[in-house]
Design goal:
Its EC number is 5.3.1.9. The chain has 267 residues and is of the alpha/beta class. 57% of the residues lie in helices and 8% in strands. β1, α3 and β2 form a beta-alpha-beta unit.
Length: 267
C-alpha cells in the first residue's frame, strides 16, 4: 500500500480517492460523520482505531499559518461490527434525515470455520450497501405489499414508513482474506487517506494541541481532589462540580463503615 500510494497516478490512487470522497462528503455536502462497518469479527475494534487516527489528526480549525480554516475539516468517525450495527443504528443510516456516509469492509475468505456463516454474513453485507444506494420507492413498496395480500387501506398506511430514499454514500472494501498483510495494507490505506486530507485542507495532521489544555487543567484539579490544596482558581461551574464531588465523597465515606458492619453481620 505504501508503494501504491507513492507510485500510482492520482486517478488510480486509493488513499487519494478515498480522501477526495471524504472531503466531498464532509466539506462540500456537509455530512459531518462517517460510519466504519467491518463484516469480519477480528476487526471489531477497527472503527475505534480509525476514530482516534482521523479525529485526533484532522480535528483542527487552523491551518499551517495559524489562520482559521473557513470550512469544516475532519469527520466524526464511529461504528462497530456491521452485523451488530444492523440491530443498533442501521435504521438511522437508512431512513433518518441525517445522511451518514459509510465504509463497509468485508473479506472473501471467512475468518470462522462455521459452515454457511460467512455466506450469510456477506449476503447482509451486500444487501445493506445495495439498500443504502438504491433505496425503495413508494410504488415498489406498494407492489411488494400487494403481493403479501394486504388490503388497500393497510398498504396506504404502511407505504410512507417503508420508503427508503437511497442515494446514501458508501465505500465497499473487499479483502481477499484478513491476515497480517492485508490488515497492514488496510491500516496504511486509511493513514495515507488521513494524510492526504490534511494536505488538501492545509492543516497539520501530526499535532495534538487540542488534548493539551485538558491535560494541563487536570494537573491543576488533581491536587484539589486529593485534598492537597483548596478548590480555587476555576470557573464557578467547575468549582461547584468539584465541591459537590468532594461533599459526596465525605457522605459516602461516612456510610462505608455502617455498610461493612451490616455485611459482616449478614455473613
Amino acid at each position: 500500500m505504501d508503494i501504491h500510494f507513492r507510485d500510482e497516478p492520482l486517478e488510480k490512487n486509493a488513499p487519494v480517492l478515498m480522501a477526495l470522497i471524504s472531503i466531498w462528503n464532509s466539506t462540500f455536502l456537509g455530512y459531518q460523520s462517517q460510519a466504519i462497518l467491518p463484516y469480519n469479527w477480528p476487526l471489531a475494534r477497527f472503527s475505534a482505531y480509525l476514530q482516534q487516527a482521523e479525529m485526533e489528526s484532522n480535528g483542527k480549525s487552523v491551518n499551517h499559518k495559524g489562520e482559521v480554516v473557513p470550512h469544516t475539516t475532519g469527520s466524526i468517525i464511529w461504528g462497530q461490527l456491521g452485523i451488530d450495527g444492523q440491530h443498533a443504528f442501521y435504521q438511522y443510516l437508512h431512513q433518518s434525515n441525517t445522511i451518514v456516509p459509510a465504509d463497509f469492509i468485508g473479506s472473501v475468505e471467512s475468518s470462522t470455520p462455521v459452515p454457511g456463516h460467512h455466506e450469510n454474513l456477506m449476503a447482509n453485507f451486500f444487501a445493506q450497501t445495495e439498500a443504502l444506494m438504491n433505496g425503495i420507492t413508494a410504488e415498489e413498496v406498494k407492489e411488494d405489499l400487494r403481493k403479501q395480500g394486504l388490503d388497500a387501506d393497510e398498504i396506504e398506511r404502511l407505504v410512507p414508513h417503508k420508503i427508503h430514499s437511497g442515494n446514501r454514500p458508501t465505500n465497499t472494501l473487499l479483502l481477499q482474506r484478513l491476515d497480517p498483510r492485508t490488515l497492514g495494507a488496510l491500516i496504511a490505506l486509511y493513514e495515507h487517506k488521513i494524510f492526504v486530507q490534511g494536505v488538501i485542507w492545509n492543516i497539520c495532521s501530526f499535532d495534538q494541541w487540542g488534548v493539551e489544555l485538558g491535560k494541563t487543567l487536570a494537573k491543576k484539579i488533581l491536587p484539589v481532589l486529593t485534598g492537597k490544596i483548596e478548590n480555587a482558581g476555576h470557573d464557578s461551574s467547575t468549582s461547584n462540580l468539584i465541591r459537590h464531588f468532594q461533599e459526596q465523597r465525605i457522605v459516602l465515606s461516612q456510610q462505608q463503615p455502617d455498610r461493612i458492619d451490616k455485611e459482616n453481620r449478614h455473613d
